[in-house]
Amino acid sequence: MNKIRGAQAGFTLIELVVVIVILGILAATALPKFVDLSSEAGTAAANGVAGAIASGTATNYAARVAGKAGTQPILGDNTTTCSKAVLEQFISGVTLTTGTGATSDGNTYHVSPSTGAGTCAGAINAGVATKCTIQGYKGNPVQATVICTGT
């Protein structure tokens, strides 16, 4: 008896079906983009590890030039420079191994010399940058820039 003229009581069945169809189309369009982002995430994680190594070695070089005690020498050929023993001094929270190829878990990264990179061998190479390849779980290998300290 108290009806308001011109007001609707709710949505019609057709309006609800149209909305559901539109949402289904949007979901079907967006879903393939989000299905396999793990390789991109793996590359981003390896970039983070490479950045941490680069930052650590650059800080080490600057402290060494300033004469601060406790710095680590980074010298030798690329196999020595890109070794687990040298690089794990500059990063924590991840496991470094030597070798190539993707690892089987998300917290382990292979380190190896980059082909065609400079070398830290020789006393005159203080401040020279060389490259080490970092490969993590899925994703692409990335390069970490390592600053040589010389003697």
Structure characterization notes:
- With 151 residues, this protein is an alpha+beta fold.
- It has 4 helices and 4 strands, in the order ααααββββ.
- The protein has helices at residues 13-35, 38-65, 78-81, 84-87, and strands at residues 95-98, 108-113, 129-135, 142-147.
- A 4-stranded mixed beta sheet has the order 1-2-3-4.
- The chain is elongated, with a radius of gyration of 27 Å.
- The chain starts with 12 loop residues before the first helix and ends with a strand.
- The model has no long low-confidence stretch (mean pLDDT 84).
- The chain crosses the membrane at residues 12-31.
- It comes from Noviherbaspirillum album.
- Keywords: Membrane, Transmembrane, Transmembrane helix.
- This is Type II secretion system protein.
Average residue pLDDT: 84
What is the strand content?
A: 15-25%
The number of helices is 4
Shape: elongated
Protein structure class: alpha+beta
Q: Give me the Rg, rounded.
A: 27 Å
Distance between the termini: 97 Å
Biggest sheet: strands, sense, closure? 4 strands, mixed
The tally of beta strands, per DSSP, is 4
What is the N-to-C order of secondary-structure elements (H for helix, E for strand)?
HHHHEEEE
List low-pLDDT spans.
none
Spatial ordering of strands, largest sheet: 1-2-3-4
Question: Portion of residues in helices?
Answer: 25-40%
Organism: Noviherbaspirillum album
Transmembrane segments: 12-31
Keywords: Membrane, Transmembrane, Transmembrane helix
Protein name: Type II secretion system protein
